[in-house]
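Q: How would the C-alpha cells look for this protein?
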Amino acid sequence: MSAAAAQRLLRQGSASAIIAAWNRRIKEAVDGGRPGDALLLFAQMRRAGHRPDRLTFPSALKACAAAADEAAAFAVHCATAKSPSSSDPFVQTALLNLYLKLRRLRHAALLFDEMPQRDLVTHNAMLMGFSHLGSLSAALGFFLEMNLAALSPDPVSFAILAEACAAAGSLSAVKSAHGHAIRAGAAGDTAVANTFVSGYSKCGNLMAAEAAFAELPDGRRTAVSWSSMAAAYARHGRCAEAAACFSEMRRHRGSALEAACIVSLLAVSGLSHGEVLHSLAIRAGLAENSAIGNAVITMYCNSGDDAAARRQFEGMPSKTGASWAAMIGGHALSGAIGAAVELFATMDEPDKLAAAVAIISAAGRAGDLELGRALHRRAIATGLDSQAATCNSLMDMYMKTGCPGEARVLFNSMGSARTVVSYTIMVAGLGLNGRCGEALGLLSGMLGGAAPSPNAVTFLAALQACRHGGLLEEACGVLAAMVGEFGLRPSVEHLACMAELMGRRGRVGAARRLMEAGGGELEGGGAGYVGLAKERAEEGRWGGVAEALVAMRRRGMKKVAGGSWVSVEGRRRSFLAQDGSHPETKLLEAVIFGLDDAMRADPRDFDLPPSFLS
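A: Here is the predicted structure in C-alpha cell form.
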C-alpha cells in the first residue's frame, strides 16, 4: 500500500485499520532495504498514540537487526515488554532472531530460557543463531538438548546443523549429523540431502558427497541438487563432471541458478577449468552477466593472466563498481601498481568506492606508504573518506606500512561508524606494530560491551598480537573469553598461535598435543616443524631434529623463506632470507653493518634504549 493510501485510512478513524496501515508502511520500509525509515515510522506511530501490535514488533525488530542498531534494539525490546504482545510466540521469535543477528548470545540465551512457549520454530532459530556465530560446539550441544527434550528435529533442523558442521570444516561432525538425519528419516528430504552434498564437499570428501547425492532419487533432484554437485566437482578439480552437472541443472529448469552456479564454479577453478567455464557461460547466453564477467576477471587475475583479464574487462558492455574493483585488484595482485592507479584514475566517481578499497589495500600489501597517502588525499577530495569501508582500508594500509599513529587518528575520527571490521583491523595492526597492550585494551572494550562484539577473526588478531609480544598468559585469557563468553570454536589458526607461544616457553609437548587435539599441524605447518627442529638442536637432541624434519617432508610441507619488501621511488624491491641475488647486495650489507656498528657504539644517537641491542 502506498503512503497516500495509508494516510486515507488514518483519516477514516478505524483503530484496527490505522494499526494495519502503520504495520504495512513499516514492513514495506524493511522489505525495501530502508531499516532507518522503518524505525522512524515506528517512533512516529508511538508518538501519534497508536499501540504497536503483534505484527508491528517483528518488523521493527527486523529493522533493528538490518541496521545493526543495538540502541534501537534495546528501545524496541523495552516497548515490547510493556505491550500485551510481549508473550506472543511470533514476537518472542523475532526478538530471539534479533539478538542472535547482533551476536548477543547471552541476551538470546536468557530470552530463550524465559520464553513461556518454546516450539520447534524457536529452537531452530536458536540453532541457526549458533550456526551463524560459527560456534559448532554450541550448535551441537543445543541440538543434543533438543533431542533430550523429546522435541524431534525436522528437516530444517538437520539442514542448519549440516551447514554449521560444514562451515567449521569438521568432516566427523558432518558424518555424525548425517547419521542422525538418516535415523530420523530426514536424510531423504531434498533440501537436507543438498546440504549434506555441499557439506561433505567443503570438508574435502567428494566420495561421500557423491554418495549423498546418489541416495536422492532422480525424481527428487532439483536444480539446487545439481548445482550443489557441480560445485562439489569444481571444488575438487573435476571440471568435466562439473560441466555435466551444470547441463543437468539447466535441464531441470534451473535458469535462475545458472549465473550463481557459474560464479561459484569460477571461484574455485584454475586457468584451464576456468576457460572451459567461461566458454560454457558464453554458450549459455550469459556472457553479458556482470556477476559472471567479474568472476571471470578474478579467475584470470588469480591465474596470473592479466592480459586475458583485461580483455574480458574491456569487452564488458556494462561495468559495475565490482568490475572495476576486480580489475584494479587484479593488477595490484600481480604487482602492476602503476596500471592499477591508471585504471583507477579513469573511473567515474559514483563507482569508485569498491575500487578505492581495492587499490588502497594493494598499496598496503606492497608497503607503498607514498602511494597510500596519495590515495588518502584523493579519498578526502572525492568524499570517499566518509565511507567506513574506505576508512577501514586506509587504517589497514597505514598499519602495514608502519604508521599506527595515523591509523589511530582515522579510527578515532570514525566515531559511531566503527564496525567490528574497524576494531579487528586496529587489534591486528597494533599487534603487528608491537603495541600489544593497546591491542588487548581495544579487545577488552569489545568484551565489555562498549564496542561491537568480537568475532572469530578479531580473536585471531588478538592471539597474533599476544604471539608477537610473547604474552602466553594473556593469550590464554583471550582464548577463554572466545570459547566461554562468546561460544566460538577455535580454528587451527587460533590453536597455532597458542602452540607457538607454548613452544617459545619450552612447552613443546603441550603445543603438539594442543594442535593434534584441534586436528591441525604443529604450529601452522612447515614453519612449526622447522621451529621444533631448531629447539631440539639447541637442546642437543639431534635425533629429534631429524625426526621433525622427516615428519615435515612426509606431510609434503615446505618452510617458506622469510621475506620483506620496500617501495622506493614507486618501485617495489623484494628481499628473501639468505638470498644474495640482489645486484646491490654488497652495498646493502655494508650499509646495514655500518648502521649496526653505529647503534652499538651509542644507542642514544638513534633514540634507542640500550636493551634494544642486548
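The longest helix spans residues 15-31.

Residues 609-614 have pLDDT under 50 and may be disordered.

Upvote if useful.
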